[in-house]
Structure of Acidic endochitinase:
Amino acid sequence: MAFTRRRPCGILLLSLLAASGSLSLAATGPGDVAVFWGRNKDEGTLREACDTGTYTTVIISFLRGFGHGAAYYSLDLSGHPLAGVGADVKHCQAKGILVLLSIGGPPNTNTGAGAGYSLPSARAAADLAAYLWDAYLGGSRAGLRRPFGDAALDGVDLYIDQGGVDGHYDELARRLYAYNRSYRGRLGVTLTATVRCAYPDPRAQAALATGLVSRVHVRLYGDLKCTWSDREAWEKWAAAYPASRVFVGVVASPEADKDAYMFQKDLYYNVLQFAQKAPNYGGLMIWDRYYDKMNHYISSS
């Protein structure tokens, strides 16, 4: 599985901490760095993100419209042209970088027909799973357009911030994971979830209960603040899902969330030095490539 490739998060933060005059960070534990891409056309191409050498996972975001029938599957890449994205996906994968598609995202302000997303029934979940498989993953279907051409993404991230708590995302997870039978021993569909920091996240709970979600990205930011401190919130998630790799999700700039932004030194001393001791610590999740590029939070380019 591509996502098992690891690198020390400490190394990535070392130069940043040294530059700020703080104590140097040792490579204290394994960890990947995941970044969301697709939220600002000024962030550069997917290929450029992968060529920084910083990220081990890039999460394309978002498939924003689903659950309203076949006519309303909508991909929102914030003005990025689709031409070339497929070639960039293959370029990233050739470097050993996992490329996922995130579905859902923050509530959509568009109120037109088919706006937003939901999974009101098991049938809707089955339809979405089949669509994702045939349009973005390893499948194909006559007459169905593949936005990224023949490039097959590595999996799906569930970023569910809209709709009721009774969405059928557990059925979606089971349907998507079942496609792994087509891959003869290797994982073809990796499932991850990006959750709110306060445990539990009711919208993600059913999907996580399937045991099929291999990574959990815990957002230590957002409009709903953590019920506990950032560290305590993260530790509750790590303890609840010991079989999943659990990531520390942070914003890369105060422009993204000034109240939740942590300087690199604070991130290490308040969260990472403790999180890295957990056996299922996975690494960092960065929101997002645009803010990281502008603020050089993790990436130098």
Q: What stands out?
A: The chain is about 30% helix and 20% strand. The first strand starts at residue 7 and ends at 8. Residues 1-8, 14-30 have pLDDT under 50 and may be disordered.
